[in-house]
């Protein structure tokens, strides 16, 4: 069916071009019509003077010896006789004009649509004039022609003379109003414009005269102006209101230019502030502050540390596979009576995009509904239908390639797009479906949410993000906080602790693996955020970039607490696990950071296996416009992460969808293997480092007991009872207190905090119950009595 459609389509255009539409033919036909109209015009005119002499010759048309007096001889006499005598009389003179206009239209290749209207009006006009002349010029019936005479006769039999007269008046009004758009206002404005035109003309001629008297040289120039004005006003005589405005505008412009009073504007010279003078002097003496100076000899990792993964020549095109898939798509759609007008393929590293243009009249939803059928007939996983492709007007069918090409991290890092990227935190994710390197700025995102079922490429994705930053940023410019509950994925990065990692003071390991430490780190990061905002406020700047620029220009005094602030990237792997064990304690600081941290250079990357709504809560989602989905197991998961389906149809192994709020891009994630990461961190780790990791502010959390309600008199009335319950059960949990004492969640939570402050239970330990420090009731009694 599709073939039929494509074959049968070009035919009409071909035919049209030979007989109708070719430019040459139009010119020939146009000129013929114009010349014919001239001939017709002259024969009609000459008919009026010679018709009586020529009429007797009409029967002897074939006789070559007989000659007619008409300018176009017997041909002219005959055709005029038909149109003028037997036809419409004098009104037939309009006919050559209509033919001439048609000729001009064809000659110039103008659209013929407008011509139709002209012909209709022309013919109506001919009929009206013919009847009118037949009515008024009864003494010379030739003026109205036979048709005019007969029609008059016919109408008068039914409507009488007055009736015909009224009919003619109505016809005239109809023609004037519809054709010439004449209205009462139009008529009055016409007279006004005439009046103005005459006055302008008068004025102009007066000026001309004056100019002639003054200077003969300028006369020729001055003379021209009113002539143009003249034709202009004449042309606008059809009383259109807008045209009249034009005319007025024209007049307004004519007055002599007024002399303007020149004003001198004195230059504003800004007085340099004291601080600027000092800063300029410091910059002159020492140059701009260079944050990288402390590790001045730092060498960025080289490209050789990355593998090519066997890919050297880019994507290989399998012509057979392309043809086979194309045929299958066409066949499948044909089975559902959907014809295709056009099909185009774009080959990407893992999938090929077939863009189709369906025949006119096919509903898009029909194709969208066939997603499963097409997948079945192509016998392939991961078919995604994009109907329509935004901004293109085509329908996309993504079909996985039989042999996917690995996109090596090496190829994306080496790409000029990444190398030349003028971004604060450039990340090379991989390659798009059209094989372009996909680079985005984390600083602009400003946070990233990653989801994907296990084994679909999440850890590789995280490594790709970290590797990109390691290849582009100096240790002074960016610091990572890595949270890895799985304890194995990110441990490699321990080697660059003193270069690139940030940690809590007194903490042994920079990579955070246990939940309590996560909560502390998140809260400490909140303090860092507040501190940074304070510094920004002091420096009177709005964001980290402006702050650092000002600091580099030595306009901020380190003695006031100012320092160069590196970007901080917080990476949390397995966020679901954290939320399950720590709940609100994690969610609250994460939400706070997500909401506020963008301006002060703290960016979050959160990865999760389970993108369910209780993990990615509304508040988190709202603050993470950039989302990245690897393959997930269900449509619901896909919707949770991307707000649209599609991630459930990916093929895994780094096949992913990325959205930054608007359209979704399919990307093949760059592949970086663990040995490569190991080589990079070894390379960096072997270089001279800072004395310690970047220190985060100290967070005095719950375990110090100081921040909790410590005052004995402020204790809850049920404090003693709760303490007894806990000691008897030897289990420090708020839900136990809730159940036994029938209290609300918040009150039980407060009591457990007070018990912790009193030293009866230990600190919060995630999903586990708190430790109980008091072994029995006697010990509890003693403790409470001694307070
Ligand atoms: N971009 C990629 N290109 C090619 N293969 C990939 C890519 N990403 C992942 N893979 C393959 O998929 C495997 C699993 O990837 P990865 O370890 O990143 O999964 P994951 O989603 O982190 O799983 P989990 O959640 O269990 O840690 C890798 O060992 C690799 O073979």
Automatic annotation (TrEMBL):
Domain FtsK: 435-639
Pfam families per the UniProt record, alphabetical: FtsK_4TM, FtsK_alpha, FtsK_gamma, FtsK_SpoIIIE
Residues engaged in binding ATP: 452-459
Compartment list: Cell membrane
PROSITE patterns: FTSK (PS50901)
Any GO CC annotation of this UniProt entry: plasma membrane
Membrane topology, from the record: Multi-pass membrane protein
Record GO biological process: cell division; chromosome segregation
Transmembrane segments: 27-49, 88-108, 120-138, 158-180
Family: Belongs to the FtsK/SpoIIIE/SftA family.
Protein name: DNA segregation ATPase FtsK/SpoIIIE, S-DNA-T family
Organism of provenance: Maribacter orientalis
Lineage of origin: Bacteria, Pseudomonadati, Bacteroidota, Flavobacteriia, Flavobacteriales
